Amino acid sequence: MSYNYSHLSTGIRGLDRVIKGVMPGDNIVWQVREIDDYRYFVQRYAKFADLKNQRLVYFRYASHPPLLDPEEFPAAEIHHPDPEEGFEPFITQIHETIKQHGRGGYYVFDSLSDLANAWYSDRMLGNFFMLTCPYLLDMEALAFFALLRDQHSYSALTPVHETAQVIFDIYKSRDNIYVHPLKAQQRYSATMYMLHAMRENEFVPVTNSALNSEILAFTPFHSTDHAFEERDRWNRYFQEAALAVQQSREVEIDPETRQRHLRRLLEMVVTRSERMQELAARYLEIENLLEIGKRMIGTGLIGGKATGMLLSRAILQKDAPELRDVVEVHDSFYVGSDVFYTYMVINGCWWIRRQQKDTETLLGVAEYARRVILTGHFPEDIVRKLSDMLDYFGQSPIIVRSSSLLEDNYGNAFSGKYESVFCPNQGSSQRRLENLLTAIKLVYASTLSEKALHYREQMGILDKDEQMSLLIQRVSGDLHGNYFFPAVGGVGYSYNPYAWHPEIKPESGLIRIVYGMGTRAVDRADDDYTRIAALSAPDKRPESSIDELRKFAQKRVDAIDLTANRLLPVDFDEIAKYSPPQELRLAASQDPQTNAPYISFNGLFKNTPFVAHMQKLLGTLDSAYQYPVDIEFTLNFTGEEGCRSLAASQDSRGEEVMACDPAANYRINLVQCRPFEVRKSEEVSLDFAEDKDKQVLLAARQGTVIGRSRALNPRRLVLVSPDHYGALPVSQKHLAARAIGKIMKVTPEELPAVLVGPGRWGTTTVSLGIPVTFSEICQAACVIEVVAMHEGLIPDVSLGTHFFNDLVEFDIMYLAFYPGKEGSELNRELLAGFRNRYLDLVPEPEYRALAEIITVVDFSRDELVLAADIVGQSYQLYRVPAGKEDFDNVP
Questions:
Q1: Residues whose CB falls within 8 Å of the CB of residue 244, separated by 6 or more in sequence, listed in order
Q2: Per-residue pLDDT at 360
Q3: Helix H or strand E segment including 832
């Protein structure tokens, strides 16, 4: 029988195309839950060999039912080597058979897992494969092997994974077959290592993150290093809890024993904060904690961000069951806090970190420590488990998120203080692993960043135990051409501190959303805009006209470019070419003048239950936390596949299968949840009538007020001249920002300060405003943004950004002033008459030229009043001069 190299196939041409064709000598390993899953593919393979008149050899040695029936495949040669006779006789018989047949041929092996049973050794299974696979490769033969998933240790899996040419994971979910290629030696495509759905004889990449998570949730991840396998105290406690759960299925466990296991695992894995422990104990079950343990890399706590994400999902599952088909299933991983400590110790960073008694001492060595962290190495077992995790995710983009012990807790949000790093996850397995390790190092190094250290000092927690755990998540989104992003990304608040219209109810919550990655919603990087909606009145826009709606709509979309292998901003006009029409109908509106689409989300608000879902979600979390909450979320449309999945879920629960519109079916992915530090407004009454007893410095009948309504008595006014600042070169603008930082550093608490300046405070884009860091201005009582940087730049009210969270957490008022707008008043003449204390506070020679740009005026107690009304969006900053002549603030 001749061997035809053009007749090489798995038996399914669609599957051949996924791995860019079958090559001579391919040893193909199928990792399956049940042998019947393997049998399906063996049958297709054997029929193809029979059809093409190719030699088919079957080694029949296992206890499971035969894979090939001699009556159905009479041409197949069936050999019966016996593993019970011992390793050497068994492998010798197989190799002799292969040798006798010469080059080529189609080979089928029974399950390799039976060999481990016969020899009582995973290691010997691995030895058999390491000897047989290269022999078949040398003979240019095709061979099928199977392994039962989750049944073997590192000793068996590593030799198989390193030696095989092709490895497939097979999943079955609700009668659908999915193939996940883990390895295809010397072959690559942009979607090869994604999960693929079988559709007749074709295999279609599952690019939607919601569907990926939903499918893989039925077959939980297990590392080659089995969870709870090692006999240390950590794993022993997990084993004891798992045994208790197993026994409870037969005999009811007394509540005290169950509570003991729950409390011990909570303290080991989740949190040591008493307040968070009490909340977690109400909603998390032992089974939830065992699942966390199976997805942990290393030991220790999972940190605040991971705890908030898991706890919020458990709350919704228990208290809002109507949302169970709306909230996207997650399949996250956790790198324990002990891994961070271990990394710091073995790379010589621990002693440096111990010096952080104050920021001045630590900042001197922090830069060196960050360099050491970025060039360090990880323990081998941690690298191995991270590699297994990457196999699980395939080519799906992932994100490495900080999840420190103090993060996202009551009183400490740490918004934007630590890094989160996207990994597009493209290229070879080695390249993807290297990129992941670099991302982890970047997050670890951010624990010693200047902004993180200043924040901890300001919050009085510099000496607290702050270990860095990691939350590694599948990036939520779908493919749009070569771009990967979600249809909606954003933040939500259960309490709205920015009620700009009388019909808005603060307790109904607020969202700030964008089309694409949520990075554009939480970072203030450029002069783009977002959609802000009060959930009680989403049609009441902060913008006042249709022209403003179009002008101040989002123009750019953050997306992962899988070709460039990084996160990039892309013009909406460009990315819209690749967006499904039904998605655009919900995310965008048509400009009646140009007929061009602009992002509005009007369709999402009006034609789907999205607003009601978000109100229910935020309200439920607020009630459980007994505290306002702040969430990050994404939304993905799941189409017909999502409708099929939804119907199957409802049917499995014995519920009526509801009608589903594929064009509007979506999943909300709850990425993060934390307590939201907000104070309620005071009653404020503003009188804009002329009053000879007060001198108005700055006022707006219709401005922008962020924060709660209240009246303050500032003692220091720092004014950056809008006229002169815009003309400064970039270097001088940075110098001006540092000068403001110096002024604020020497401003005592008893002198509450108001900062007034052009453009956006805290921007990273110098052309848009003043590039101060939050740590430089965190002691300010109020920050006022003068809209005068360039034509068309309105204030980005920043709701939902990390900058906004800092303002709320530190109770800083944020106002916008529009020069020239009716009702706006700026008394330049009066301001020019006060004595400028700038040079007293910033005497260094390199800063002296800025005395013409920056004015600092001090006032006596109760001399200056700042009153702001959030509902009326109006405010006044005025001086009450009577009886204040003795204070030295005039020439």
A1: 253, 257, 258, 261, 286
A2: 61
A3: helix 828-832
Judge contact between 669 and 489, C-beta under 8 A: no
- Give yes or no for a contact between 875 and 714, defined as CB atoms under 8 angstroms apart: no
What is the rounded CA–CA span in Å between residue 493 and residue 614?
A: 10
State the DSSP code for 193.
Answer: T
Helical axes 274-283 vs 303-319, angle rounded to 10°: 40
- What is the C-alpha to C-alpha distance for residues 402 and 415, in angstroms, rounded to an integer? 11
Q: Which CATH superfamily is domain 297-475 in?
A: ATP-grasp fold, A domain (3.30.1490.20)
The token pair that represents 805 in the structure block: 């969270």
Tokens of 257: 């024993």
- Are 587 and 515 in contact by the 8 Å Cβ rule? The answer is yes
Q: What are phi and psi of 468, to 5 degrees?
A: -105, 105
The CA-based angle 420-626-513, given to 5 degrees, is 40
Note the CATH architecture for domain 480-675: 2-Layer Sandwich (3.30)
Whole-angstrom Cα distance, residue 769 to residue 862? Answer: 30
Q: Compute the chain's Rg from CA coordinates.
A: 32
What is the pLDDT, as a whole number, of residue 264?
Answer: 92
Cβ-based neighbours of 744, under 8 Å, separated by 6 or more: 718, 753, 776, 777, 778, 779, 780
Tell me the CA distances in angstroms from 758 to 243, 727, 786, one per residue in order: 64, 12, 4
Beta carbons within 10 angstroms of residue 449's beta carbon: 16
10-residue stretch averages of pLDDT, the chain, 891 residues long:
69 95 96 95 96 95 96 95 94 96 95 94 93 95 94 87 95 88 91 92 92 76 54 78 81 81 92 88 93 92 93 96 93 93 86 60 72 92 93 94 75 63 91 96 85 68 74 95 95 82 85 91 69 88 61 88 92 94 93 85 95 97 93 94 87 87 93 80 75 86 79 93 89 95 91 90 83 87 78 44 61 84 87 92 95 94 89 87 53 38
In angstroms, the Cα distances linking 300 to 233, 272, 447 are 12, 11, 17
User: 3-state class of 27 per DSSP?
Assistant: strand
pTM: 0.80
How does DSSP assign 283-329, residue by residue? H--HHHHHHHHHTEESSS--HHHHHHHHHHHHHHHHH-GGGTTTBPP
Distance CA 587, CA 184 (A): 38
Name the superfamily (CATH) of residues 13-205. Answer: P-loop containing nucleotide triphosphate hydrolases (3.40.50.300)
Dist CA 123 CA 797 (whole Å)? 62
CB 706 within 8 A of CB 678: no
Residue found by looking up tokens 């040398």 in the block: 138
Residue 720 tokens read as: 């950056």
Task: Give the whole-angstrom CA distance, residue 177 versus residue 44.
Answer: 14
